[in-house]
Amino acid sequence: MIILAVNAGSSSLKFQVLKMPDETLVASGVCERIGLDDSNFALKFDGEKKTFDQPFPTHKEAVEFLLKALIDEQILESLDAIKGVGHRVVHGGEAFKDSVKVDDAVKRAIDDVSDLAPLHNPANLMGIEAFESALPGIPQVAVFDTAFHQTMPKEAYMYATPYEWYENYRVRKYGFHGTSHKYVSERTAELLDKPLKDTKIIVLHIGNGASLCAVDGGESIDTSMGFTPLAGISMGTRSGDVDPAIIEYIAMKENRSIQSVIADLNKRSGYLGVSEISSDSRDLWAASDKGDKKAHLAILKQAKMIADYIGAYVLAMNGVDAIVFTAGIGENAPETRAMVANRLHYLGTEIDGKKNQVRGEEVVISKTGSAVKLMVVPTNEEVMIARDTLRLID
Ligand code: AMP
Fold first, then answer.
1. Which numbered atom of ligand 1 lies nearest the CA of 279?
2. Is 192-381 a CATH 3.30.420.40 domain?
3. How many degrees, rounded to 5, is the angle at CA 71 between CA 69 and CA 74?
4. What's the whole-number mean pLDDT along residues 331-340?
């Protein structure tokens, strides 16, 4: 049977067509610039890539076009093969502790937490509604970035702020990238050949956005992103954790609004802000190799933040079996992995320089005999979305 895994943004719609339960990727694609003059559609299948320049006034037309393309390109014989559509939804607030089959009440609940993710939840809802109208009667499933972290204990998710902020405005740590942390921790347990409930795993999802997660017995007990994806370790353009008093201080010094200073923390900080060169790890390593001190500092600052979180999570879980690198940088940047690993000797682990040269493969990169295993496990959020969809439509 075919399941679609969909990630709808405000002007884009990414999708994968997966054959389940074998989890084979049949096709993938993206509609971009929806609602703009020059919208387009790219479709990959059978090692081919086709692009179409096509106006998509809304997500509805984009979905109709992509479904038609699946038939026209003979990727599917009939749309009847599609038994479910799984949607990435960024924020589930406290309402969703797991993925859920979509109905009107679920849509209202997603809308209800839109003020916690104003750029994402309304777009995710548009994606759901576009598929509802194009494939009536086919079940839709919402898979939340926040759901996996709903197992965090209260002392992990509460901030030490006035309690009424939590009661009145839902201010607490939610965490993100939950689908990735769940996939990677489950896969790591399989690779360790241990029951998930007996594992203590730290997942390092390091991409342009980055978050870390302490997964104890298959449950998230703490994570580095917070109320928003700005918190935690430094990222491509985001600062990660800073003293919040800096915000008012800069606003006063530069006679600017709080919003514009926070925009700097989101868009002009992290790798980009410290290096003053780029938000891309490849550019920073290239500059650092040529002796650029700020590029080196930007990478080193992130590595320190990662190692500091790892230290905290080892204590929070009272142990760790494996520390796992994933996402764009985690999967592809041996230099970054080595820089982090070199701060972890106290844990009795040492990176194997040769094994670490891998990119995008499942592999143990610590030396044989290391007490704590260092691993690379490529993430696959789409497979997790398809798995949850299959589980909930059966
Ligand atoms: P993501 O957001 O997960 O797509 O990750 C994007 C980040 O991954 C960017 O900083 C890229 O520089 C980094 N990245 C992707 N491929 C490589 C590579 N081959 N070597 C180093 N970094 C990479």
1. 10
2. yes
3. 105
4. 98
